[in-house]
Amino acid sequence: MTPNEPHSPQPLLETMSWPEARRAALDGGRVVLLPVGAIEQHGPHLPVDVDNRIVVWLCNEAARRRPDLIMSVPPIHYGFNEHNMGFPGTITVAIQHFIDYVFDVCHSFVRQGHTRIVLVNGHGSNAMPCALVARRIVNETADALAAAINHWSLARDLAAQIR
Questions:
Q1: pLDDT grade for 4, boundaries at 50, 70 and 90
Q2: Phi and psi of 23, rounded to 5°?
Q3: Nearest-angstrom CA–CA distance, 159 and 108
Q4: Measuring CA to CA, which residue among 19, 18, 52 is closest to residue 34?
Q5: What would you measure as the largest C-alpha separation in the chain, in angstroms?
Q6: Which end of the chain is more exposed for a tag (fewer CB within 10 A), N or C?
């Protein structure tokens, strides 16, 4: 495909070539969904990456359904998890390192031309740091808007009905 040919937007960054990624940033104005998870224990019955699996699936599914509005990007796999370090398999990132790293990832998208980013969080202890990252993006960039949301907030009414 040449740069002048019409194209269907790809919904997932990891499937794009760099010219497609450039078009996604500059032409579409799509919302970037950044899944943010953790590697931690979830009892003896679930894999340690369940937080990542959930948010990646949610972001990818949203992008597949609306590729004209949404682009899902590869996740932040590790989070702030000091409170679970007693369980083998858990990985933690110091909170300031986490904030700076996620900010750098988001800021990279802004530098490429993206102006709307949503951090979709899948781990409770990442909630406040993700909110701080979103605030920094808004405060420290000229035109970008950012927000952070916990995945469990997306279906609060449905979850209440199921319970």
A1: very low
A2: -60, -40
A3: 35
A4: 52
A5: 55
A6: C
CA distances from 47 to 42, 54, 65, 81, 94 (A): 7, 11, 27, 16, 22
**Judging by beta carbons within 10 Å of its beta carbon (0-12, 13-18, 19+), is residue 54 exposed, middle or buried?**
middle
Cβ contact 7:18 at 8 Å: no
Instruction: Give all strands of the β-sheet with 116-121 in edge-to-edge order.
Output: 70-72, 31-36, 116-121, 145-150
Model confidence pTM above 0.85: yes
Task: Flag whether pLDDT at 91 surpasses 80.
Answer: yes
Which residue bears the tokens 């599914």? 61
138: how many CB neighbours lie within 10 A of its CB?
14
- Which residue from 101, 125, 112, 117 is spatially nearest to 37, judged by alpha carbons? 125
Count the helix, strand and coil residues of the chain and give each as a percent rounded to the nearest 5: 50, 15, 35
CB 31 within 8 A of CB 13: no
Residue the block writes with tokens 């340690």: 48
Beta bridge partners, 12, equal 72
In this prediction, residues 132-161 reach a mean pLDDT of: 92
State pLDDT tens for residues 29-71. 899 999 999 999 999 999 999 999 999 999 999 999 999 999 9
The encoded tokens of residue 106 equal 């988001």
